[in-house]
């Protein structure tokens, strides 16, 4: 049968040249014979692998048996019954043969070929244990490493699923390579660039290993093509850990110095963008296992400076990426400096997205100076994109909300006096007509034209605020810092002509509704707003329908949240949820015959949106706030039984409610239930645990959790490799058939605190309704939820009647 040399096997000419330099006379003739014999054996072994005939019965080796049998006995004795010899025991058995170097040189090629054919799953152990630079020619070491690597990574081999044995783990192959690099001179091993790429790809799940591989190759002075360096740097750049990004810059610096790489090519610019892109996830767990080579971590600003020193000519994408990264790290001053750098560069002008990212970062950090400067700069440059000004409106509300939360004298339900200033800012950019239709009882023209926004103490009850409409009461005789800081900025915004005003988006209107509702001190004013909004939906008003379609349940969530904060209003909140369920079930029933289930559970014209997982979480929060724990648990159970999966916010809400009530048993139980769902606790979870006065139980819980994590890691790390007992012909014949061995939303309302959207003012994606909002598209489930809500409402009515009767009886007895 004609051999099929694998594509990864280096061309013989490249290795023969080395033999010619090192050998002469009879030695060269013998070396040439060994060379061709080795190449043919490796190609034949690969053909056996591709044909699914490994392990191979006819490849038994007495030398290999004589090594593995004592190694197996030694390994078994040292590990109390473990069936796999390790590298040290094989090395000891190899040395115990007492052969000379010449004898080892003669026997080693046969030994390695037999190992690849008979014990392919353990060949890497045998190679590492018997490797000696004076015994193993460099081409044999290179071919063996390539064979092991491609046996694991070859798409052809994996697609055919022809390996009936465990291939070496990625870390094991890295260990083999590092051992050879450590034990050989710099000019000994020369792997192909495609092999280095495969190593990089194979190790991508552990970037510390990628870092170790790069450092070892540099120390060994192994040649690396610019594309190989870009691959390594690209893997490291995608890490959320700063030390990996810093190393990616180091890789780029060396590539620029040692190759013809141009940083301003598309490939170089893409790498720089990846380096500057900051991840939003928490990377603490990624830092638990570190690289053996430490790289000092740089901040996003320092990374940007290093890339500029490399010759980077930033474009709009690069600037946007670094500003976003700085904002995520709350390095807002540095982000503003980058914006100013863009403004000073004639070639790159910031767009609305850049301003929006900066405003969103300043909003989250409640940074007044940055909010002011971004708003003024955007206005001066004529930026009118609604995303930016949505963020500005949300910034006004967020700063007011945070200020109210810090004031312990303001008890729930708090009145957040942000709406008048929000109206003035809104009127500078957006058309008033859509908002006027939503809030007909508010004299928006008067509020927009009034000058009371300059007062940092808020408007008095008898002042202009009393003309906003029923219930818009703002606390008087109090200094509000948000008004003092942001009112001058609002007044400085240019007044646009009617034709220049921007049409508000759904996010814009939802933010304004949020500000309005949270400024009401009377729950009946909330009900009045909802009654009007429901009427708009029932009549099919295009603006109201579009608002619900764009923002889903956001307006309803604001109403439910506001009502649940008032004493005696949980029943009214349940009525809102019932409206939502009734319309969702009716719409789904209507579409059942010819329509889409996904469309039915989104929004129909004139219908309420279905409750999302956010709505249910808000309802649970209301029950927990009013210490109606059984009802909160009932809503949770109802969700799970009816196909609405609670998210992390739901569990955190339940946990925090129990913790605030100092019910430590329920708190710990909720934490354990959360973990059993496969969700990972976050900062809000641990903040909820901190509400407990009894921290002893919390400490015990966290210690138990840590112990479980350690045990799980130990179990994973202790998975044994396949048994290294000698394989008999009978065992080979009984080998199993080949198989392919393949190797789990934080805020229910958003970063503005009560319902406006997150992510720089972007609206939620209504098309993802059935994917991330926790909706059910089953008519029976929706009707079941509606019945459950009605049952809860009935129980609440009965409890209220019982309380009233008991109170009346006490009065009569008195």
Automatic annotation (TrEMBL):
PPR repeats lie at residues 315-345, 612-646, 647-681. Keywords: Repeat. Pfam families: PPR_1, PPR_2. Residues 740-814 are annotated as: Disordered. Belongs to the CCM1 family. This is Pentacotripeptide-repeat region of PRORP domain-containing protein. Regulates mitochondrial small subunit maturation by controlling 15S rRNA 5'-end processing. Localizes to the 5' precursor of the 15S rRNA in a position that is subsequently occupied by mS47 in the mature yeast mtSSU. Uses structure and sequence-specific RNA recognition, binding to a single-stranded region of the precursor and specifically recognizing bases -6 to -1. The exchange of Ccm1 for mS47 is coupled to the irreversible removal of precursor rRNA that is accompanied by conformational changes of the mitoribosomal proteins uS5m and mS26. NCBIfam families: PPR. It comes from Sporothrix schenckii (strain ATCC 58251 / de Perez 2211183). PROSITE patterns: PPR (PS51375). Residues 794-814 have a biased composition (Basic and acidic residues). The keyword Repressor does not apply. Binds to mitochondrial small subunit 15S rRNA.
């Amino acid at each position: 049968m004609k051999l099929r040399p694998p594509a990864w096997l280096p061309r013989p000419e490249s290795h023969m040249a080395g033999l010619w330099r090192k050998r002469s006379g009879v030695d060269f003739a013998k070396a040439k014979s060994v060379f061709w014999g080795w190449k043919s054996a490796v190609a034949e072994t690969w053909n056996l692998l591709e044909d699914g005939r490994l392990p191979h019965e006819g490849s038994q080796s007495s030398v290999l048996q004589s090594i593995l049998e004592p190694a197996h006995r030694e390994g078994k004795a040292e590990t109390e019954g473990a069936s796999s010899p390790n590298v040290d025991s094989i090395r000891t058995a190899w040395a115990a043969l007492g052969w000379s170097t010449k004898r080892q040189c003669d026997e080693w090629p046969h030994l390695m070929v037999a190992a690849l054919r008979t014990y392919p799953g353990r060949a890497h152990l045998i190679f590492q244990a018997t490797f000696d630079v004076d015994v193993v020619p460099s081409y044999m070491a290179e071919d063996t490493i390539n064979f092991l690597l491609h046996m694991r990574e070859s798409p052809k081999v994996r697609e055919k699923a022809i390996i009936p044995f465990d291939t070496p783990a990625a870390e094991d192959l890295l260990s083999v390579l590092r051992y050879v690099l450590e034990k050989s001179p710099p000019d000994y091993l020369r792997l192909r660039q495609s092999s280095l790429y495969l190593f990089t790809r194979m190790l991508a799940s552990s970037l510390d290993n990628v870092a170790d591989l790069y450092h070892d190759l540099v120390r060994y002075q192994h040649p690396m093509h610019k594309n190989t360096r870009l691959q390594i740097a690209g893997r490291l750049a995608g890490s959320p850990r700063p030390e990996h990004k810093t190393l990616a810059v180091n890789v780029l610096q060396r590539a620029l110095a040692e190759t013809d790489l141009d940083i301003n090519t598309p490939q170089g610019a893409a790498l720089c963008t990846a380096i500057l892109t900051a991840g939003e996830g928490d990377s603490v767990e990624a830092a638990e296992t570190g690289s053996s080579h430490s790289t000092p971590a740089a901040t996003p600003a320092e990374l940007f400076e290093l890339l500029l020193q490399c010759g980077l000519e930033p474009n709009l994408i690069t600037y946007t990426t670094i500003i976003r990264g700085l904002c995520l790290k709350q390095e807002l001053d540095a982000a503003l400096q980058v914006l100013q750098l863009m403004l000073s560069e004639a070639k790159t002008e910031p767009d609305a997205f850049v301003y929006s990212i900066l405003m969103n970062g300043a909003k989250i950090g409640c940074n007044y100076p940055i909010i002011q400067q971004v708003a003024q700069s955007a206005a001066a440059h004529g930026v009118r994109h609604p995303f930016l000004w949505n963020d500005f409106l949300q910034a006004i509300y967020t700063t007011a909300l945070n200020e109210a939360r810090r004031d312990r004298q303001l008890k729930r339900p708090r009145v957040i006096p942000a709406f008048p200033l929000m109206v003035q800012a809104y009127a500078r950019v957006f058309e008033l007509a859509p908002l006027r239709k939503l809030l007909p009882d508010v004299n928006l023209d008067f509020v927009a034209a009034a000058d009371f926004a300059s007062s940092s103490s808020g408007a008095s009850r008898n002042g202009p605020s009393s003309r906003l409409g029923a219930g818009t009461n703002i606390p008087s005789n109090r200094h509000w810092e948000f008004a003092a800081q942001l009112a001058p900025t609002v007044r400085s915004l240019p007044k646009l002509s009617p034709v220049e005003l921007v049409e508000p988006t759904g996010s814009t209107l939802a933010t304004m509704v949020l500000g309005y509702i949270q400024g009401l001190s009377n729950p009946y004013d909330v009900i009045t707003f909802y009654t009007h909004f429901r009427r708009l939906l029932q009549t099919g008003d295009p603006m109201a329908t579009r608002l619900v379609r764009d923002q889903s349940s956001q307006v309803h969530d604001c109403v439910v949240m506001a009502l649940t904060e008032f004493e005696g209003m949980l029943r009214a909140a349940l009525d809102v949820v019932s409206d939502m369920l009734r319309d969702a079930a009716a719409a789904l029933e209507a579409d059942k015959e010819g329509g889409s289930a996904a469309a039915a559970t989104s929004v129909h014209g004139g219908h309420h949106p279905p409750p999302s997982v956010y709505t249910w979480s808000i309802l649970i929060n209301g029950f927990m706030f009013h210490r109606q724990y059984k009802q909160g648990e009932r809503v949770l159970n109802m969700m799970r039984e009816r196909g609405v999966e609670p998210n992390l916010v739901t569990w955190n809400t339940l946990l925090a409610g129990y913790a605030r009530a100092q019910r430590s048993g329920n708190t710990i139980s909720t934490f354990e239930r959360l973990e059993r769902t496969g969700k990972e606790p976050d900062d809000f979870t641990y903040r909820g645990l901190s509400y407990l006065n009894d921290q002893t139980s919390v400490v015990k819980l966290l210690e138990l959790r840590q112990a479980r994590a350690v045990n799980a890691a130990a179990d994973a790390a202790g998975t044994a490799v396949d048994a290294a007992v000698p394989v008999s012909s009978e065992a080979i014949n009984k080998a199993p058939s080949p198989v392919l061995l393949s190797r789990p939303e934080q805020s229910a309302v958003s970063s503005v605190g009560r319902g406006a959207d997150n992510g720089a003012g972007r609206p939620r994606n209504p098309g993802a309704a059935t994917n991330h909002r926790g909706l059910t598209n089953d008519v029976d489930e929706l009707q079941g939820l509606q019945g459950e809500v009605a049952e809860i409402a009935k129980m609440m009515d009965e409890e209220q009647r019982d309380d009233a009767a008991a109170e009346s009886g006490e009065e009569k007895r008195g």
